[in-house]
Amino acid sequence: MTSPRDGGFAVGPDDDSPNVINVIEVRGLTKRYGTITAVDGIDFTVRRGETAALLGANGAGKTTTIAMVLGLLLPDAGIIKVLGCDMLANRYQALARMNFSSPYVDLPRRLTVRQNLEVFARLYGVAGVAARVREVAAELDMTALLARPSGELSAGQRSRVTLAKALINRPDVLLLDEPTASLDPDTADRIRGYLAAYQARHGTTILLASHNMAEVERMCSTVFIMRDGRIHDRGAPRDLVARYGRANLEEVFLHIVREKAAQ
Which residues, 6+ apart, have CB-to-CB distance to 53 below 8 Å? Predict the structure, then answer.
């Protein structure tokens, strides 16, 4: 049975069960580019309603991992399950209930913000497109932007519109790649506030990739620290800080990076 929420794809009874506690499950995930192993046999889970982060320096494997969870890249080995669905065998069941946001994703510049959001809403089979666009615009305090051509937006405005695009189908799982990259502190704080408020209202599960330590420490209950394509350590930010005897997550991260450089 399908519904507008599911974007026209059938969702099996096990996939929507409250018993699916681990919304994202990754086992033995590996991705190689020739002789380079970008992601090397990683395992992790993200629980329902949790905000978790893949934290690492550039080239650690964060974005590649996000792309594989989304189904944009095929892994060379491993298992990915989202909402109980095997993403390699049956990914469309889960994709209808997922979305993705990144400041690096551009929108058609000649279309207005409203037109862009309407296009994505229709692609996801959202019922009541016009009403949903108005609703998500109001949630993100961007109603005044709806008539603006997307090519005329500032970086902060584009970030809000990209986030609105990612929320248009009311996703159960939201993947974020560097959600506040290149934003000024005030705009970045607003974006984090919008995400926190949306998650509190809807119970969305969030997995983000970032190298912004303060942001991760503020937003996330679980952190997976990646180094050289592997998960070097994991835990709650406060537990990692205590384990390494450091003042904050940034100092933990710098210790791990410098430890590697010294080897």
Answer: 207, 208, 209, 210, 216, 219, 220, 222, 223, 224
Sheet with 98-101, strands from edge to edge, namely: 98-101, 173-177, 205-210, 51-55, 222-227, 230-235
Selected from 3.90.1720.10, 1.10.10.10, 3.40.50.300, 2.30.110.10, the CATH number assigned to the domain covering 4-97+175-187+207-262 reads: 3.40.50.300
Helical spans, DSSP H, in the chain: 62-70, 91-95, 113-123, 129-139, 155-167, 185-202, 213-219, 237-244, 249-262
What are the tokens at 6? 């599911």
pTM for the full predicted model: 0.87
For the stretch 182-220, pLDDT in tens is 788 888 898 899 899 989 999 999 999 988 888 999 999
